[in-house]
Write a structure and sequence with these properties.
- The protein is of the alpha/beta class and 213 residues long.
- 50% of the residues lie in helices and 10% in strands.
- It has eight helices and five strands.
- It has a five-stranded parallel β-sheet.
- Helix 2 crosses helix 3.
Length: 213
């Protein structure tokens, strides 16, 4: 099924990061350079870590542990809804995510995670970016930024990369680890947040020019 055309009055960037790639820093700077707002991840590293630690002896998969840990919120709070328990709840979650992202990016914006890559795929001017790097460098960066030891960061890397991909597959049937969904892939191993942000901003300008031609 083809994606509907989505328009916005300002530049739009979607970011997906492999854990520890520095997306918060890069995304915040991209938003500053473009003069738009930045929307961070819906689920923090701490939330995913707690879900992984909860009932580790259970045979449940990651998503079920996440659901059991954080519970089922009410339909009135779709923007903050967590992992659903059945297909109907899945549809409600997707509707809430879609509404949030379309409203947020109507005037332009930078979105980290939240399946923005596929939700906003119909916007011809949106630039879809993946931040990546070596596992060793990502773990070291994450430990430094979060103020945690490298061993804990290494556990988070495994759980978070698995968990975010599992949620994307369940809710939107896409695998964010597949590079085909992105316009630009930035390896942050040897790039400062400023340099990575400048590359992305250049990509935004090129994407907008391409859409206008």
């Amino acid at each position: 099924m083809s994606q509907p055309v989505i328009t916005s009055t300002g530049p739009v960037v979607t970011l997906f990061e492999s854990y520890g790639s520095g997306a918060e820093q890069v995304g915040t700077r991209v938003a500053e350079l473009l003069g738009v707002q930045f929307l961070s991840q819906q689920y923090s590293s701490e939330m995913l870590e707690q879900a992984s630690a909860h009932q580790q002896d259970s045979e449940d998969g990651f998503l079920m542990r996440f659901f059991k840990r954080f519970g089922q919120p009410s339909v009135e709070h779709l923007d903050n809804i967590l992992i659903p328990s059945d297909q109907q709840d899945d549809q409600q979650v997707v509707a809430g995510i879609n509404r949030t992202l379309l409203d947020f990016t109507a005037g332009g914006g930078v979105v980290l995670g939240r399946n923005g890559t596929v939700v906003l795929a119909g916007n011809p001017k949106a630039l879809h970016v993946k931040l990546d790097g070596s596992v060793e460098r990502r773990v070291a960066r994450a430990a430094e930024l979060a103020g945690i030891d490298p061993e804990r960061a290494a556990r988070r890397q495994i759980n978070e990369d698995e968990g975010r991909s599992a949620m994307a597959l369940r809710l939107y049937n896409w695998d964010p680890r597949d590079d085909k969904y992105y316009d630009v892939i930035v390896n942050t191993d040897r790039l400062s947040p400023e340099a990575a942000a400048q590359i992305i901003v250049a990509g935004v300008k090129a994407k907008i020019a391409s859409a206008a031609s």
